[in-house]
Amino acid sequence: MRHPESVPPSPAIRLRGVVKRFGAITAVDGLDLDVPEGTCLGLLGPNGAGKSTTMRMLTAQAIPDEGTLSALGYELPKDSKQARAECGVVPQLDNLDIELTARQNLAVFARLYRVPRGERRAAIERALEVANLGGRADTPVDELSGGMRRRLLIARGLVHRPRLLLLDEPTVGLDPQVRQELWALIDALRAEGTTILMSTHYIEEAERLADTVAIMANGQIVARGRPADLVREHAGAETLEVYGPPQRLAEVREAAQAQGFRTRRTGTAVAILGSENGNGRLPEGVRRAASLEDVFVLLTGEEVA
Amino acid sequence: MRRRLHRLEPAAIAGVMSRDVTNFATFWKATTFSSVIEPTIYLLAFGLGVGTLVSNVQGLDYVQYVGTGMVATSVLFAAALSAMFGTFVKHRFQRTYDAILAAPVDTEELVTAEILWMSARAGIYGCTPLLVSMLFGLDPSPGMLVVPFIGFITALGFAGFGVLMAAVVSKIDSFNYVTTIVITPLFLVSGTFFPIEELPQWAQVVANVNPLYHCVELVRDAVFGFEPVDLAHLAVLIVFALLMWRLAIWRLEKRLID
């Protein structure tokens, strides 16, 4: 489904001025967001930034108070049922039917997603294969490992070959081996041309999988671009990390800020950004390439809300 | 290319019910066991206990009176309790409904499918007291074939009521209030164990607005012979079912859609 170059394709997802309030709390605060067809956009932000609410609005499980949304050209929430039929959703919380087997879970959703009767069996087999669950197809979910359950959750979102996939924190709470396995799976989908909107608070995940990253804080997009561009633009080329006891860290931080450098805490050290312009004025420390994490902390704040 | 999806699509309702059926296959034995054993214990207790004090009620042998009346009790518990607890667990603990609503299924279809499924189940299992009563000497009659349908229509209302309660309460413990204040009185003042004509005037009025009373009357008449008033009983059950269906959709949608 590639569009000719001359016709600008309409984005798979478009949000304009979207506001969502829960009582006194404004979870999403005037959000504008486009996800072009065939790309993977990583929605990166701390917990409570409004990522999940944004995802829920795209399936009409949350209704915006203001603004307009569309998915795959369908206006939301008005035509959301049609949009949902062509969208796959992988939720943050595991909501599989644990007494049922992997295959039975997929069979139910093949029906819910209106896969025609004659194609259901093949669709289920294909989804099992994509998630590499062929050998465990008839195992009750109860007896699957955490990683397998997560893969099954993704397979369930793919059983009807959606054009758009919404992934909400796809690897939260999983160990590194499982996480890499899932990244490979998501990367393969992206290579096939599926449009993906993925929310995450793992920087590495966004860096590896997303064509474009949108950093979200307090219900708004605070920066958007390719990961490398965001790093260059907001954090410079190099970061210097200075280690020491807390009192020393406070001094280093003050001195660096007095010279016009931006700093951030990294827990055990002070990170001085843009240290490539240090010209010998900076203390001894460990030099490293600036990272998306530097950008993330700079833009979303050091304090955990 | 753009197939338009509509309200109350049969495919969506069938899909949600296919999930229920598949799940039921994992626990049908326990359900069947309790739905057969419970009325047996009741009938033994009433037949051997109360039955020695009261030999017949309204011209019926007491065991047959209670046995036919208990169809309504079984339907009430099967429909209302599984709707209350099932809906609450699927909504709050298992988050099943979040997954279903992310698919092209609306709350209206979800609630309709759940009510239809629980009612079909309750309608069928509601007949077990009749079967057990036959062991206690109740004669089979052709009208008994209508009993599952009476059970089904009654269950529509009580399953809807259960979904409504699950959407209203904030904690699962609050169901204690519902069972104590609503369900227990409903089942006691329904003409199952004693005729409501024996009750004070006010209690008779209460019994008449109790849908379960109308189910009890319909089932007894199905077994022992229909009367014109049964159309009125049926009408009450249908109105109750429609009312609860819409209320359940309205309240659960408020819960599920932010």
Secondary-structure blueprint:
The complex is a heterodimer of chains A (305) and B (258).
Chain A: E1 13-22, E2 25-35, E3 40-44, H1 51-58, E4 66-71, E5 74-76, H2 80-85, E6 87-90, H3 102-112, H4 117-130, H5 146-158, E7 164-168, H6 176-191, E8 195-200, H7 203-209, E9 212-217, E10 220-225, H8 227-235, E11 238-243, H9 246-258, E12 263-265, E13 269-273, E14 286-289, H10 292-300
Parallel strand pairs in A: 3-8, 3-9, 6-7, 7-8
Antiparallel strand pairs in A: 1-2, 1-4, 4-5, 9-10, 11-13, 11-14, 12-13
Chain B: H1 10-24, H2 28-53, E1 56-57, E2 60-61, H3 62-93, H4 96-102, H5 107-125, H6 128-135, H7 147-168, H8 175-188, H9 201-209, H10 211-224, H11 230-256
Antiparallel strand pairs in B: 1-2
What's the CATH class of the largest domain in chain A, please? Alpha Beta
Report, as a whole number of angstroms, the end-to-end distance of chain A.
42 Å
The percentage helix of chain B is over 70%
Query: Number of helical runs of chain B?
Result: 11
| Largest interface (CB < 8 Å) | A-B, 31 and 30 residues
Helix and strand succession of chain A?
EEEHEEHEHHHEHEHEEHEHEEEH
The share of residues in extended strands of chain B comes to under 5%
In the residues of chain A, how many domains can be counted? 2
Order of helices and strands of chain B: HHEEHHHHHHHHH
Question: Mean of the pLDDT scores of chain B?
Answer: 92
Concise structural overview:
The complex is a heterodimer of chains A (305) and B (258). With 305 residues, chain A is of the alpha/beta class.
